[in-house]
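Reminder to self: keep the SMILES exactly as supplied, no canonicalising. Ligand is pyridoxal-5'-phosphate.
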Amino acid sequence: MSLRFWDCLDHQTFTDTACEVPYQQIKGDFFPGFDVWVRRDDLIDPIISGNKAYKLFFNLIEAKDRGAKILITCGGAWSNHIHAVAAAAAAAAAAARFGFQTIGIVRGERLAILNASLQDAQRFGMKLKFVTRTQYRKRNQSDFLHEMGLDSGAAYFIPEGGSNLLGIKGIQLLGKVIEETVPATFDQMWVACGAGATFAGFSAGIRNISVIGVEILRAGDSIFKEVDRWIKRLNLTAPEHLEKGRSGTLLSSDRLSDLRLRLLNQYHCGGYGQYPKVLADFQREFEGQVDIPLNPIYTSKLFHAIKNSNDRGGGQRGARLLVIHTGGLQGRRGD
Ligand SMILES: *Cc1c(COP(=O)(O)O)cnc(C)c1O
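Structure tokens returned for the bound complex:
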């Protein structure tokens, strides 16, 4: 991955880079009876990895086209997205074609020593602004920047996680790249869901593989509703194609095979950022047997779900599964 698409924000360079991302087959018997492959989007860029790279790309083009001087975004203290925005702006500035200043609005109070993720962001040139959880709750309101005392005039605001229409457009591009580059025919594609924008983008970009999203937080109905809202907004597919999995009420496999999109909500392991021993043990075992590093918040829960789910392969042994590695390995330092 030597091409630096951030330097030029060129569509073709980005697409070419996405087309080079490797697919890795999991050898051995970690998933007995299933043929599991991983698309290593954690490798798309050494720093700006996984789905955040795709969600950012068109946002940066838009910011540049609008002549914005400042990128403002927000997230938690270990946010992969904040880290990615800071790094991408630094890459663009280093190429000296255009530059963005960056401001990261961080949920919670500033600790005496910044964590490794925020230290990186600061080193990449980002200014950090810490806000209370109550203030942070207003992050999706139109007057949020004003409330934070920030001038929105010259700024381009990217919402938490890069989850806006342009972010989803980047994921759609990834979906198309996947359909063009898959090394085999897959029965299912699995992805971790936080806000659900990535899953929503795949519902738009992927036509021939059923997509299963694993909710990594205790979200109630919110991810389902968010995805449904995006799908309607993108006017892509009838909402009845989206079915929610509830623990204990798995759909029968023949029904499942009719459904192109599913969200599973019983594999959050206690909620966002929760990392119980069973998950830690799983991650250690996985990384010991399979040569792929996982992120404790997202991809370890994803593979844990695949290992434990009856939905795997639509209940059909021998099924071939594609798992999207959405990156975020910088977050491992939070362990
Ligand atoms: C942000 C993130 C996700 C979740 O993406 P959404 O679009 O919010 O669902 C998944 N995996 C990793 C590693 C992430 O950083």
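Points to follow up:
The pocket of pyridoxal-5'-phosphate is lined by residues 50-52, 80, 161, 163, 192-199, 295, 298, 326-328 (CB under 6 Å).
The radius of gyration is 19 Å.
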